[in-house]
Fold this sequence. Notes:
The chain is an alpha/beta fold and 379 residues long. It is built from twelve helices and 14 strands.
Amino acid sequence: MSEISIITIKKWNPKIRNNLIKLMMQYHIHLTLTKGIPFCLLPPELYHFVIPDYSDGQVIESCLNCDLKPLCPGFPANRISTKYAQPIKLIPNEVVIEITRECNRQCSFCHVSRQKGAHLPVRRIETIVQSATQLGIKAIRLTGGEPLLHPQLNTILEIIKEYNLSIIINSNGTIPEILQILVAYPVKNLLVSLNLSQDRDILTRKIAIILQAKKLVPILRIGTVIRKELIENFSAYAKIIHKLKPLLWEVYRPIPPAPDLTQQEWQTLISKMEIFNKHSKIKVKIANFTPLCWFNWKILNLSMGNFADRGHSRVVYRSHPIEGFYLDYYDSHFLGYDLTEAWFSEIAIKQRMLSEISSTCLTCRYRMICKGFLKNKTS
């Protein structure tokens, strides 16, 4: 882990900012952190990796209208010119749309309640895409179920393309038609799940599909749910990952009610992940909420933080239990049907400003990365 402190920079100008951004983006996947840097001097992708330092920050006029004012360390006195300050207006990085609950697999650890024929109407999807464009959002993520099973997927992709938004698809990678989709539409990011407990013939065909898909999409990521099976077969997973060569291998702490690992199992997994990262150009990262304090902050280099959940950087339109917007895939707060109202809802703002985390977490220097435990919750 590296930390860059603003105290080492005497003067601030766009050239220094651009060089710093290049440096930080180069090591973003390794979780480079910054200390005491105002949010408006950073690219949005790095807002969640700031270590707030409030020792001598000052609030200036442009701070008053900034959405991140409650979290920002402010401008360090006499060290940075306020010339480049500008208020930030937060918008989601993406909108996730669960376009279908139908799936051709039956993974026991999946949090989605599968239902054949449960497809989101195209008209509703177009309304969401239109609202996203009006709000300034740049990307739409299609998920499910298995999004390839939506009977009007091509129409949906045409709509997103028409609005000039980036397309992200979450898929189990077992349906060959994904290759036709990648040829016909500008999908920029493909996340494919990897689970070795499935039928060997299916797995073999899946690997062949992913290898072809990699040639057709700019960004390929592989995702695996953390289970005992992953720990026991980690070397087998690693072998496949090296064959597929994704940009990143993401592993996910299981979503309740799926069982979590024991402390000893976590330690074993962490050890294997560290060894993998040490000897591989491809990195494996924990991609959802895993409390850093559980492991005395030793997993900082293995964690992508918790910015993808609880409405910190996106909202999810789900078809169950009630169709509408939610903070994430498994959150119970129903935010209604309007995207703008959902994003600026009271609960969403409280989550982004960390108003809902425990008092202990509020004192942690890594709270912007971890996002902390919610009040009255311990796991």
